[in-house]
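Training component of the fellowship. As part of building independent skills, the fellow (R.M.) carried out the full modelling exercise for a liganded target. The chosen ligand was tryptophanyl-5'AMP. The inputs are recorded below so that the supervisory panel can assess the work.
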Amino acid sequence: MEKKKVFSGIQPSGALTIGNYIGALKNFASLQDEYDCFYCIVDLHAITVPQIPKDLRKRSLDVLALYIASGINPEKSTLFIQSHVPAHSELSWVLSTITYMGQLNRMTQYKEKTKKSEENLNAGLFTYPILMASDILLYQADFVPVGDDQKQHLELARDLADRFNNRYSETFKVPEGLINKFGARIMSLQNPETKMSKSDDDENAYILLLDDSDTIRRKIKRAVTDSEGVVAYRDEQPGLKNLLNIYSVFSNEDVESIVRKYDGIGYGMFKEDLAEVVVEGLKPIREKYYQLTSSKDYLEDVYKKGAEKASYFSGKTLRKVYKKVGFIQRA
Ligand code: TYM
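Fellow's submitted model of the complex:
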């Protein structure tokens, strides 16, 4: 029997945070035995905000190296760069003709972005979720592992799949999200009411996968908590709740037993231990990453093979789509 398919992508628009790792990347490797997985470096998405070309190239390779460093095996999963597979842009155009403006207007991520950077209101920012839907639908993905912030985009992908299928007959698999119960939304260390994000102006708000051990310790020490002085997992203590989620993910311990361990002990000790848990968890990834970035030929080989495989699968879907909408088959 054919394996079910998984698709996900990460933007190479900045160094990755532990939010990206916990919400998405950490799960990617664990899916690769059971499913046929496609993991993409979505550089087309990244240029919706201004990029320095040289940096974008470097960061795209960084994301590839981090995919592999976090345990994804390129022999099992398909790792590729979005711009190497033109079908993504091509399907995106077709899907844009069945997407309602009202749907795009309702996207909260777009609304937030427009609030922040008013001088960069380009059309790509607006149509971005259509490109994301194309990524997913081209591979007939059954499951899409993402963080909580991508839920609405995923809903659009499902909706477009349904709409296309209804209008032109069954073509796309309607995908489902795989969203963690814990850690689907890791919050800023400085303001636990907002999401941890690589684009935050305050670098103490996030931990990067490539932060060195002392930086990690310093950032956790400075993380905002509260004045209750009790290690507890509750909404009234959002800073602590976030740190407990991070602790739990990196230590594989459940939150209740962590809370019990720090019963009657102050935040200082808890934060020190948390820092060590994160440092230890990230060390092997960082080491592997540095090994990989010095093997440029290997990375090139991976993304070349990945693009070939991705082109094959996505090409099949795109040809079906072109035929159904009434384009003459290329002679
Ligand atoms: P991006 O690049 O912003 O983030 C990559 C993944 O990390 C998750 N994530 C988080 N999870 C938990 N807590 C956080 N603070 C946090 N910050 C980020 C995101 O939910 C995401 O899963 N549009 C997507 C990229 C994309 C994509 C796709 C994803 C393009 N095409 C197709 C899945 C399928 C994005 O901007 O993710």
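The panel noted the following from the submitted structure. The two ends are 34 Å apart (CA to CA). The pocket of tryptophanyl-5'AMP is lined by residues 7-11, 19-20, 22-24, 42, 45, 132, 135-136, 144, 146-147, 149-150, 153, 184-186, 195-196 (CB under 6 Å).
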